[in-house]
Amino acid sequence: MSETKSAAKALKEKLFMDPKNAALRMEEAEVTKAFAFCDPYKGFLDASKTEREAVVTGVKLLEGKGYRPFDPATKYNAGDKVYAVNRGKSLIAAVLGTESIENGVRIAAAHIDSPRLDLKPRPVYEDAELALFKTHYYGGIKKYQWTAIPLALHGVIVDRNDRVIEVTVGEAENDPVFCVTDLLPHLAGDQMKRTLAEGVKGEELNVLIGSLPFKDDEISEKVKLNLLNILFEKYGVTEADFLSAELEVVPAFRAKDIGFDRSMVGAYGHDDRVCAYTSLQAILETENPKKTSVLVLADKEEIGSDGNTGLKSAFLRYFIADLAKPYGVEGRTVLSRSECLSADVNAAFDPTFPEVAERKNTAYLNYGVVITKYTGARGKSGTSDASAEFAGKIRNLLDRAGVIWQTGELGKVDQGGGGTVAAYIANLNVDVIDLGVPVLSMHAPFEVVSKIDVYMAYRAFYEFFIA
Ligand code: MN
Ligand code: MN
Q: How far is the CA of 372 from the centre of ligand 1 (A)?
């Protein structure tokens, strides 16, 4: 009887897919490594709250490893390392492989923009002797989450003399911060009857920036005047300069460990800087790969990847063409033989909201890097859906390297949906699959990831580059 049982048990082990918490499958030393890997990641997040800052941080790290600005006229040799920056907001890095570029390249593509509040072109106003900024939110947010939390202001202003002025307020220990105010519960009876989506409306996301009037008896809008005067003294800017500005309001808090066991990281912008950081670290560690390794850090993913810094632009396509040209190879030939990990996050199962997920096909915290074969919505609309062949190749690659992975789907069928840059890269005739880190509270000002999953994502990108 017991023998039959163990035979059945062995058969079950052979035939069933039996995902386990990665922490139970890893050596203690590797868990320690995973935790240590996330310490500099927290620093990266704090230094890179906008796409521009992520590019600056990325370039610094690349240059430290011998990467140099890409020159399309140069015929590079195996092992050479280059990078190209697009308008300060997206970045491509490549390390030349020992194999001919004609055989294709290996691409990891993450995005470095995150949901936030952008200032309107004419943001400053005064109401009831308070000064405020009007904002237009960027990306998919639950608006109520952005009230009553400390906010910082990051970005650039171009003034009447074409001077580019960098602005960062709210990050240094003694900096002031800003906030969007919300109604006290005592008077929120009507507001509480609104739906959650309408609880705080777009035009109610006004950022409080000052309250002191300019001392003068004659003029009106004294608080606005005082505020603009402070900005003029500090930055030399006037109200008209806000039109030629990109100012982003982001959470002012720093990345922190979460939990008594410190097993998770809470921060603004894990989506998708967690994949940007892990794929960046992977390429930084990649020396003399067989296939040329290419890292893309894109902008504008959260609003559909349009625009000249988004992945629908020609930046990647032309970079590949320029890289291949000195060898007499067409860019399209390279792309048609290339492979890509679309490095983006997926939703992690949240026990507080189990009803949106289908438990067998959702990703879980600590179960490793998540492979997402397709995204999309309503019957896979808007996804590239990776082929069985490419999914098999990646899965076997990770298994052979001992990288712990899981599968994920973005919620139940017809529950909602979403997309990544995968489809746009697939449209270039490249084999693509989504691979990234599961996230709790995605798109909230404070998102949560597991340190083990972050580390497994890094290992996945590295194994892909060196394969
Ligand atoms: Mn994303
Ligand atoms: Mn997103």
A: 12
